[in-house]
Specification:
The protein is mainly α. It is built from seven helices and no strands. It starts with a helix and ends with a helix.
Length: 212
């Protein structure tokens, strides 16, 4: 029966890959938090290669997903939904890598405490995404998905508030023009990473609603 299972696309390979993608996305977020905490303590930060490898793993997962989609006749979820969620997950570690690259070349003193709160909210968002993606395999009840999505939306909303507060400090603080522009861009990049988690969560909600 295994051959029939593969033809019908009822094995778990798509769920395995989506869950692996969500886990890699969360790993990149945890690495960012570790990076900021290490800088705050004055120690040597994690190697940039750690972030590069996480993004490359996510990219390989995405390629495997595309390969499996091309081989499988019937999929457990609609192809468009699988592709959209896979791409949304891939964009998270890609965004994190860019943030760390910019931080690593920033010539001034990085305001670590400002970024730590953003990283905390980003971690909350990534945890919610992992929970939601893992729920697809067993057909998570809509209420559980909504609860996780509420946590995700809360993190995104709080990130917006934190962003506004950070901008206020920038505009009223003793920063020169170049420093202000660089820090503003960095704050916005972290907020965009939270938005990418929200986008992935929204896709999961749409999938669950479709099959509810």
């Amino acid at each position: 029966m295994q051959w029939l299972k593969k033809i019908l696309g009822r094995d778990d390979k798509f769920f395995d890959l989506l869950e692996a993608g969500a886990e890699e996305a969360r790993t990149s977020v945890l690495l960012l938090s570790q990076y900021l905490q290490t800088l705050n303590r004055g120690g040597p930060p994690p190697q940039l290669d750690d972030f590069v490898q996480t993004r490359r793993k996510e990219k390989r997962i995405r390629y495997q997903m595309m390969e499996q989609l091309s081989k499988t006749f019937v999929t457990p979820l609609e192809r468009e939904d699988i592709e959209a969620l896979s791409f949304a997950l891939y964009r998270i570690p890609k965004a994190i890598e860019k943030i760390v690259e910019r931080l690593s070349i920033y010539p001034g003193r990085v305001p670590h405490t400002a970024f730590l709160r953003q990283a905390e909210l980003l971690t909350m968002a990534a945890d919610a995404v992992v929970f939601m993606v893992k729920g697809l395999r067993s057909g998570t009840h809509l209420e559980k998905v909504r609860e996780a999505n509420d946590r995700l939306q809360h993190a995104e909303g709080e990130a917006d508030k934190v962003m506004l507060g950070l901008l206020k400090e920038l505009y009223h603080g003793p920063f020169d023009t170049k420093e202000l522009l660089i820090l503003q861009e960095l704050y916005e990049m972290v907020e965009q990473a939270v938005d990418r988690c929200r986008n992935a969560g929204n896709i999961v909600v749409q999938i669950v609603l479709k099959y509810a």
